[in-house]
Amino acid sequence: MHIVLPGLAYLALFASATIAIPDIDEEFQKVTCGSSIKLTHEKSHFKLHSHQIPYGTGSGQQSITAVPGKDDTNSLWRVMAQLGHTCDRGEPVPCGSVVRLKHVNTKKFLHSHHHHSPMSGGLEVSAYEGQDDGDNWIVECTNKKEEFWMRESTIYLRHANTGTYLSSSTRHVYGNPIPGQQEVAAHRLQNQGEQNWSAQEGIYFAEKEL
Ligand SMILES: *[C@@H]1O[C@H](CO)[C@@H](O)[C@H](O)[C@H]1NC(C)=O
């Protein structure tokens, strides 16, 4: 027999409806085109990162990791439209839309393809300058009430070509020359929170006046 506790359900709804984000101005709550963001892996609080270190396996392209440091300009990514498209600076990003993320310091795009990732047996995620459709990622908002990609909200990034999801895990950590950095790879959707990311600090452009 199931015991229904309506009181608890109401409590849960109430709690999630009242979570406020007090320190962000209304117009900066949406992630907008042209903004440079840091993407936080929620489970580890590490940031999506790249640097001029190539993979020793797989494609040999520039590696992507997740790092603990907050003040690291190698963790800034510019939000751009999908390959062959443009979006206006300040344009909000609808949930379900296709974007590219350009690594600000090295100008390469977050990319994935059919190479194996070094540790977790997923697909490799690299930073690539070739500009092809392997750079396209779909923003999946986990809060179905939201129409746009919101700062601080949990999103998944699904790789458009392979259907796999941007992932990182505290179980897959590199040694030298990048000790303590986590592998970033693309995996099928699992329910362990390893694919939960959110846009937090960064350089945001206010939403355009429509
Ligand atoms: C990951 O996000 C989903 C969707 O918001 C949520 O249900 C789940 O609890 C999150 N997992 C963790 C470990 O935070």
From TrEMBL:
Gene3D superfamilies: 2.80.10.50. Keywords: Repeat, Signal. Residues 1-20 form the signal peptide. SUPFAM superfamilies: MIR domain (SSF82109). Residues 28-82, 90-142, 146-202 form the MIR domain. PROSITE patterns: MIR. This is MIR motif-containing protein. It comes from Lobosporangium transversale.
